[in-house]
Design brief:
Layout lengths: L1 H21 L21 H4 L22 E8 L2 H11 L5 E19 L5 H13 L6 E2 L9 E6 L2 H12 L6 E18 L5 H4 L6 E4 L4
Antiparallel strand pairs: 1-5, 1-6, 2-4, 2-5, 3-4
């Protein structure tokens, strides 16, 4: 058995040696650098200083931006959402566009009150006299800019404020009606467009208005 194994190993070694001695290597075919129709890579040092191909050269000077003789400011827009919606509609239709934020005064209703008394005691006396005649819904202001006035109500509509003023006047007191205002931001959109451009067709149903401004 041992002799058979040794004879098998000798035959295998002789076969391998004979294969290495007689086999022929196939010819080496180098692979192409790139596939057909695909441009190769260019190193940065190879590209520097190389002239531009003729196709990349500018064939003609760029045309100047067309003059936009119509310049207007459109607004006011009360909220950022209204501003964004208007600019999104106008942007594709005009040559230039920008927006501005400006302070404005908003009416918040009306206040009816008795003018300030000389002292807090006098203001309280006027309030008690009104209460004795059946008037309700009032209070005496004890601090701030309206100190020693008697507030007779806050109203959204001028008609209701005037009715309250007349009710107090019938009791022999001269009440004042004062508008309540506060400072709020407003936005305007400035556009430069071709002559004849009608912005109202782009923003149908808007309450904004337009005014001419210097072109920018």
């Amino acid at each position: 058995m041992l002799r058979a194994v040794l004879l098998l190993l000798l035959c295998m070694n002789a076969g391998v040696g004979l294969w290495w001695a007689l086999h022929v290597e196939p010819p080496h075919q180098p692979l192409p650098a790139v596939e057909k129709g695909v441009s190769g890579l260019t190193l940065l040092r190879e590209a520097e200083g190389a002239p531009l191909p003729a196709a990349a050269e500018l064939q003609a000077a760029p045309a100047p931006l067309e003059d936009m003789p119509l310049c207007q400011s459109i607004g006011p827009f009360e909220t950022p959402a209204d501003l964004r919606a208007a600019m999104a509609r106008l942007l594709p239709q005009v040559g230039r566009i920008q927006f501005r934020e400006l302070p404005a005064t908003a009416l918040r209703g009306y206040r009816v009150y008795l003018p300030a008394a000389a002292t807090r005691a006098e203001a309280l006396a006027s309030a008690r006299a009104l209460a004795a005649r059946g008037l309700r819904d009032y209070y005496v202001v004890t601090a701030g800019e309206q100190q020693n006035t008697v507030s007779l109500g806050l109203f959204r509509d001028l008609e209701n404020a005037t009715r309250r003023q007349q009710e107090v006047a019938a009791l022999g007191y001269a009440a004042t009606v004062e508008a309540r205002t506060e400072s709020v931001p407003q936005w305007w959109v400035d556009i430069a467009a071709p002559a004849g451009f009608d912005w109202t067709r782009v923003l149908p149903g808007t309450t904004a208005r337009a005014q001419s401004v210097a072109c920018f």
